Amino acid sequence: MTTTKSDLDAAPAWATRKAGGGDAVFKGTAFASACVILLALAGVFVFLSLKGAQGFTQPTEVYQRGYGDSFIGYVLPLLGGTVIAAVIALIIAVPLAIGIALVITQYAPPWLASPVAYVIDLLAAVPSVIYGLWGGLFLAPKLVPVYQWFHDTLGFIPLFGKVATSGRSISTAGVVLAIMILPIITAISREVFARTPRLHREAALALGATRWETIRMTVFPYGRSGVVSAVMLGLGRALGETLAVVMVLSPGTIFTIDLFSGSNTPSIAANVALKYSERSPGTLEVLIATGLVLFVMTFVVNFAARYIVARQERKFAV
Amino acid sequence: MAKSIDVSDLDIYYSDFLAVQGVNMTIRARAVTAFIGPSGCGKSTFLRSLNRMHEVIPGARVEGKVVVDGQSLYDPMVDPVAVRRQIGMVFQRPNPFPTMSIYDNVLAGNRLNSKKMKKSEADAIVEKSLRSANLWNEVKDRLNKPGMGLSGGQQQRLCIARAIAVEPQVLLMDEPCSALDPISTSAIEDLIHELKSDYTIVIVTHNMQQAARVSDETGFFNLKATGEPGHLVEFNPTKKMFSNPDEPSTEAYISGRFG
Q1: Are B88 and A206 an interchain contact pair (Cβ–Cβ within 8 Å)?
Q2: Phi, psi dihedrals of residue B87, rounded to the nearest 5°
Q3: What order of strands is seen across the sheet that includes strand B87-90?
Q4: CB of B13 closer than 8 Å to CB of B62
Q5: A203 contacts B51? CB cut-off 8 A
């Protein structure tokens, strides 16, 4: 566009008049808000990188206060704990959340659907310290018989080893996390399921599909990408949740895939919370470095989710 | 396999709102019956009550009788799913399943109805249905492409192929051409002519020329008055409807002097 001043002068007034200043103000505010978010995120990353860099190369005895002889040895067990707790949470929460979302959107009459949806949303508003207290003091002992059953019947699988009598194991942490991520997965799944076009649903129904067949033919294919992002958001929360894990898990020092052991390593976030007040030299740097690992991992998971969602959407757009 | 439909004293409700009142008619087998009338007069609602699609809307219900082949569709023992397998439906806007190929779209109904099909059997059904829907020659080389990639008119014929693949007794069409261009419309009308030798066809249309072109019998629906339920004003052979209707309001509507 090469418009000279004389061109503008020649144009009639209606063509050159700017449409109100409100537009510019709004654009500026919105743009600034977006930039602040990016700056904050970049700031966190820079902080973690600068401070955490020293955490990679501390003397061996610093790492030995933790779980290994080197940074890798220190962080891997924690990463393992993080992943195991999050995976248990997903295994429990995802089918449950999808089931609840289906009931709310497809099966339940309105008088039942809205209160159920409301209660599920309410679960998200409960502070994690409450879940921690409840999980550690009430739920953990109650789960011991369940774990015992798994150990007795499936004990030959290394996952189901000897059961800690307190029940405060990584699996209990996973169960509590599942309850915590249930609302967000349910809420988003509910939204996408409810938006299944009536046209598609009626196409299936008119062919003589039962309700479940209609769901399989229309609701799931339409909602798949939305459910994937819902699960990823839930996973993000499960990876990062600190307080509930600290309170539920009795932290040990050895990494084991034994889900019921009372001495498993905590998650990264829980470990930071546990060791934060120790203040022995070097520890803080190592903790920040583990934080960086968690940060990067969360990013990777999120980008993977975005990629899957985008790919799904491309498939729909013919 | 084509069957006639007897409707007696049918009242159709949305919750407490009476949408259509007191419909009596006999829809002939192996013929095309068209419903015309102004928007909102209940002709689509009536059509949807013929295969129990009306009741998928929460609160919707009917009173009265719809009898196909001696069986009352609204008998408490009758499963609406079974009704819809016998009475197929084509909608106003083409609605192929977006995640399915052309091939899978045609077979969607058959896969619901039955046990495992042999590949050769499935291929035969796909070809037969697509041929019946006059779509085979256009898509035979790309059966595994998504159904949504077709043009609007092709998509609508795909939906017709999907509906007839399960060999229903009756085919209901709810304004099947209103989202299509004239050429696609003409293709569908030709198709309706061919299909009526095998199926009982009921079509709702806003286009009176279309009703005159494709149907053997025509029903005119109208509201009794603003805010009153819709009702069937006149039901007669199409020739008579468009030349010498019994009711003055039918004549007024058909000749465009409606008000």
Answers
A1: yes
A2: -125, 100
A3: B71-72, B60-68, B5-14, B17-27, B230-237, B217-223, B32-36, B200-204, B170-174, B87-90
A4: yes
A5: no
Pairing of strands B32-36, B200-204: parallel
Q: Show the tokens assigned to B248.
A: 């003055």
Per-residue pLDDT tens over the stretch B121-134: 899 999 999 998 88
Do residues B53 and B84 make contact, with C-beta atoms less than 8 angstroms apart? yes
> What is d(CA B192, CA B184) in angstroms, rounded to the nearest whole number?
12
Q: Please give the structure tokens belonging to residue A93.
A: 């929460």
What is the reported pLDDT for A226?
87
3-class SS at A55? helix
Domain boundaries, chain B: 5-254
Name the stretches of chain B with pLDDT < 50: 259
| pLDDT per position as a tens digit, B152-200 | 889 999 999 999 998 898 999 999 998 888 888 888 899 899 888 989 9
Q: Is B81 on the interface with A (CB under 8 A)?
A: yes
Contacts of A315 in chain B (CB under 8 A): 99
Q: Which residues contact A143 (CB under 8 A, 6 or more apart)?
A: A167, A171, A172, A175
Q: Which residues contact A164 (CB under 8 A, 6 or more apart)?
A: A250, A260, A261, A262, A263
Question: Which residues in chain B have Cβ-Cβ distances shorter than 8 Å to A199?
Answer: 91, 93, 95
Q: Number of Cβ pairs closer than 8 Å across A and B? A: 70
Q: Residue A292, SS3? A: helix
What's the count of helices (H) and strands (E) in chain A, helices before strands? 15, 0
Contact A207 B88 (CB under 8 A): yes
- Which phi and psi angles does B179 have, rounded to 5°? -100, 15
| Alpha-helix runs per DSSP H in chain B | 43-49, 80-86, 102-113, 119-132, 136-139, 152-164, 182-195, 208-214, 238-243, 248-254
Q: Rounded mean pLDDT of chain B?
A: 90
Interface of A with B (CB under 8 A): 109-110, 199-210, 213, 217-218, 221-222, 315-316, 318
Q: Which of A109, A202, A209 lies closest to B91 in CB terms?
A: A202
Report how far residue B196's alpha carbon sits from residue B199's, in angstroms, rounded to the nearest whole number. 5
- Is the Cβ pair B112, A222 closer than 8 Å? no
**B34: closest CA among B248, B184, B192?**
B192
Residues B141, A318: Cα–Cα separation, whole Å: 18
| Nearest residue of chain A to residue B109 (CA atoms) | A207
Set out the domains of chain A in order of their start, with CATH numbers.
Answer: 79-265 (1.10.3720.10)
Query: Is residue B77 within 8 angstroms of chain A, CB to CB?
Result: no
Per-residue pLDDT tens over the stretch A231-290: 988 998 898 888 888 888 877 777 777 788 777 778 888 888 888 887 777 888 888 999
Q: How is residue A159 written in tokens?
A: 């996952």
Residue B215 has which token pair? 């149907």
The yes-or-no verdict on residue A120 having pLDDT over 90 is no
CB-CB under 8 Å, B109 with A207: yes
pLDDT above 60 (res A5): no
Considering the domain B5-254 in this protein, what is its CATH number? 3.40.50.300
